Amino acid sequence: MEAQHVFLVGAKGLASYGGYETFINKLTEYHKNNGRIKYHVACKANGSGCMDPKKTEGAVMLSDHEFLYHNAHCFLIHVPEKIGSAQAIYYDVVALRECIRLIKEQKIKHPIVYIMACRIGLFMRRFYKEIHKLGGKVYLNPDGHEWMRAKWSKPIQKYWKISEQMMIKWSDFVICDSINIEKYIHKCYDGKGIKGRSPKTIYVAYGAETRKSKLADDDEKLLAWYKSKGIKPHEYY
Length: 237
Description:
By secondary structure, this protein is an alpha/beta fold. It has one domain (4-229): Rossmann fold (3-Layer(aba) Sandwich), CATH 3.40.50.2000. Helix content is 34%, strand content 18%. It has 6 helices and 9 strands; from the N terminus they run βαββββαβαβαβαβα. The chain has helices at residues 19-30, 87-105, 121-133, 154-169, 179-189, 220-229, and strands at 4-9, 37-44, 60-61, 66-69, 72-77, 112-116, 137-141, 173-176, 201-203. Strands 3-4-5-2-1-6-7-8-9 form a 9-stranded mixed sheet, sandwiched between helices. α4 (154-169) links the parallel β7 and β8 (173-176).
């Protein structure tokens, strides 16, 4: 069976701290022995939050800008730091260009390009059309109400809002990590997609361990922990 290639764009790396970074780290870890999925991950090569594979346990260098980690193919994107707050936009755009280059070079069929955050809406129409021409799909993991954050000036807030709208429009599937984000997207963008379509969404929670506990319900270690905390099963959060 041919592997499904998934390109992950928007996180700074796999082993650094952050919501998207932790998500990708765990995603690739869980699937590292799954031959049906092949991940390709864009990683920031320099600046704040960058990933240094030479200092990352388990990373295997393939070239000066490529490495394997959890059996995922990772590639480094250098970002000019002098462009300030535009670094994130530059990073995503260049990463997407590299994804498209790899898809063409390796003749990858039906790739999925999974983008985290809504930073590059003004460029998304072009990328969406190019990815579709290659037989691919665009998945989006929006970052909530980024445009509302007080740290941004009014012009930047306006840009983030427009960018969010365009990202939602030019995506095949929107994966929401919050029920409220999913509700917000439908409230704001239903009927505003391509040819008046509403966004196709799904709610998928992440951020917590989902593996079943190895401890039985009556294990002495578990019961002792309950006692030490003064709690009972199903009576705490």
